[in-house]
Amino acid sequence: MLELREAVLAEWETRVRACLDKAKELSHPILIDTLPAFYDNIAQALTADYPRVDAGDGTTVAIEHGGERARITAYDHESLIREYQLFRWAIYDVLYREGVQLSRSELLTLEASIDNGIQAAVSGFVMAHTALRERFAAALTHDLRGPLGTVSAALELILMVNDPARIKTLAAKALDNVHRMDAMIHELLDTMAFHSGEQLALQLAQFDIREVILDIQVNSAGAGRPQVDFGDRAPIVGWWDRSALRRAIENLVSNAVKYGRAGCPITIQADEIHGRLQLSVHNEGNPIPPEEQESIFQMYRRSEKARHTRTNGWGIGLPYVRAVAESHAGSISVDSHAERGTTFTIDTPLDCRAYSGAPTVV
């Protein structure tokens, strides 16, 4: 069994990448995960007089595998179960090909190991997802309390003052924060709908993307905030959803503010290339590790650095940007390096009217 381990793992990886869409783009270290250790446990359980009943006896290796699938990949529970089933058949086929025969007792041990591994992995998967949702709920509550507190304070002051001008100012402040909360909730609902397989309901209109970027640039200015640079460029007119695209760019700018190097400007660039819009947001600072560059676009997931800092976030900002880009028949990519900085790029057709119903990857 141990001599055939690499052959089994190679066979399994080939089958998983062919059968599971969610596994195709995973790097080898992420895909293989804890399965080598799980395989070794199976070999130990099949060894006479070795004190291990099955591969899951006295170990959490399968639980950790399920937890990592929940935290790092876009797997659902069906994908997790399916990869263990493929693991079972990879073992059987390699053993058959190599002329290795198992006794009835060994077959039962192997079957029990796989079945118990599936149960433990699903348990770890559910526990990790529960923890992610609880963290998300806490972040959501924290972020909503700010504007809600402002609205409450403004309304209390309105009840106490008689100056019409003062009342109008307070009412405008309250309304602005209500709109802010409404935008946050809509972003959440849109992102959840997108990740359930639904298209975003786009309201396409013709406009110059520079108008949106310049408005974001003005609204981003303020004491203590990084400078947002946007050069003097030619008009880029296209058919997009103004509100959705604006929110997506704001999320990228907000992300650059949170994680960019203090004192360094944020750069927005927009270009028209071959009938497409390429819009990028760049910041200097610590790079996003290659193994995290895909997972940050998944629901409720944040980079390792973000999780271990005091920076608040829901883990839906970048997934929302992906939802907007893909619903416009485009894409969102990231380029991140210690010397180049980090650049997020939205790439969509100039005229999205003919593609608004294009399929998206969930």
TrEMBL record:
Q: Which UniProt keywords apply?
A: ATP-binding, Kinase, Nucleotide-binding, Phosphoprotein, Transferase, Two-component regulatory system
- Boundaries of each Histidine kinase domain copy? 139-352
Class in the EC hierarchy, top level: transferase
What EC number is given for this enzyme? 2.7.13.3
* Keyword Metal-binding belongs to the record: no
What Gene Ontology molecular-function terms does this entry list? ATP binding; phosphorelay response regulator activity; phosphorelay sensor kinase activity; protein kinase activator activity
* Catalytic activity as recorded in UniProt: ATP + protein L-histidine = ADP + protein N-phospho-L-histidine
Q: Which InterPro entries does the UniProt record give?
A: BphY/WalK/GraS-like (IPR050351), HATPase_C_sf (IPR036890), HATPase_dom (IPR003594), His_kinase_dom (IPR005467), HisK_dim/P_dom (IPR003661), HisK_dim/P_sf (IPR036097), Sig_transdc_His_kin-like_C (IPR004358)
Q: Does the keyword S-adenosyl-L-methionine apply?
A: no
- One Pfam family it belongs to: HisKA
One record GO biological process: osmosensory signaling via phosphorelay pathway
Q: What is this protein called?
A: histidine kinase
Question: Organism, per UniProt?
Answer: Pseudoduganella dura
